[in-house]
Amino acid sequence: MSGRFDGRVAVVTGAASGIGAATVRRFAAEGARVVIGDVQEDAGERLAADIGDHATFRRCDVTREEDISALVDSAVAEHGRLDIFYANAGVMGALGPIARSRVEDVDTTIAVNLRGPLLCMKHAARVMQPQGTGVILATSSPAGQVGGVGAHTYSATKAGIIGLVQSVAAELRPHGIRVNAVVPGAVVSAMTADILAGDASATELALQALQGGSIRPGLPEDVAAVAAFLASDDAGFVTGATYHADGGYTTAPGDSPFAQGAWAEPIGMFEAGRRS
Questions:
Q1: Where are the domains of the chain?
Q2: Is 243 a catalytic residue?
Q3: Rounded percentage of the chain residues whose pLDDT exceeds 70
Q4: What pLDDT sits at residue 1?
Q5: Sign of torsion, CA 47 49 53 59?
Q6: 160 and 144 Cβ atoms separated by less than 8 Å
Q7: What is the C-alpha separation between 161 and 141, in angstroms, rounded?
Q8: What CATH number has the domain spanning 9-273?
Q9: Please, are residues 193 and 199 in contact by the beta-carbon 8 Å criterion?
Q10: Which of 174, 188, 185, 203 is closest to 243 using CA atoms?
Q11: Which of 86, 154, 243, 249 is catalytic?
Q12: Which residues, in sequence order, are CB contacts of 249 under 8 Å at separation 6+?
């Protein structure tokens, strides 16, 4: 790796597994000191131990502002600064028909998926503004942009992430802080395995289920690569943006019907069906 993050400090939430863990590994491999925030204590400790000196684990429940504040404070206390905050923690949350929604599930989903990232941005900004530099990232979803592909509350929160990122980017731009959203497609992870196979450990089944739906099955490392780009100086002129790492699922979902079958040969179609 290039060492793009030598001397920099990153915090990642939802970092003990899946996309978060892959991003932690990518940031650390490129030289960053990374603080892993998650409620999965065993997995988080194992990840930190596996990476070594470049990573530490701190328990963080993003529904608790005091946990987020402490996570940021620990990064500054240990390393003296905060350069990157990736608000990645999220849950599928409330499922089921809108007419039978359980308000307690709705509230918890919003607390994790939208209020959590907002509070992450709050506490990242309080450290980054005096520095005059920093990068904040947050995870959205195709469900925040396309109807019918996600649960209702989940879709609403992920759409909210895009609006939040754009709004906060406008405020923090004069302070030298960039804010962007990452939109992952379905990737081979424990969450995807649980959704597709009913078993979080069945990643091989998830891999098989995702075959043929895109360029190839997506991997957490694919999303981590986009996060690393956005966090790096290579994206120094990028803020308020929404970057897709979804194999075209959101913006190119069709199969190009007018380039195959009866339309496999070039033809021009004009007024009243006239062809040339």
A1: 9-273
A2: no
A3: 89
A4: 46
A5: positive
A6: yes
A7: 9
A8: 3.40.50.720
A9: yes
A10: 185
A11: 154
A12: 142, 185, 186, 213, 214
Q: Which two tokens stand for residue 61?
A: 């429940």
HEC readout, the chain: CCCCCCCCEEEEECCCCHHHHHHHHHHHHCCCEEEEEECCHHHHHHHHHHHCCCEEEEECCCCCHHHHHHHHHHHHHHHCCCCEEEECCCCCCCCCCHHHCCHHHHHHHHHHHHHHHHHHHHHHHHHHHHHCCEEEEEECCHHHCCCCCCCHHHHHHHHHHHHHHHHHHHHHHHHCEEEEEEEECCECCHHHHHHHHCCCCCHHHHHHHCCCCCCCCECHHHHHHHHHHHHCHHHCCCCCCEEEECCCCCCCCCCCHHHCHHHCCCCCECHHHCEC
Q: What is the mean pLDDT of each run of 10 residues along the chain (276 residues)?
A: 88 97 98 98 98 98 98 98 98 97 98 98 98 98 95 98 98 98 83 60 58 73 97 98 93 86 90 89
The β-bridge relationship of strands 134-139 and 177-184 is: parallel
d(CA 100, CA 270): 49
Count CA atoms closer than 13 A to 276's CA, side-chain side. 4
Place of tokens 């506490």: 123
Query: Which pTM was predicted?
Result: 0.92
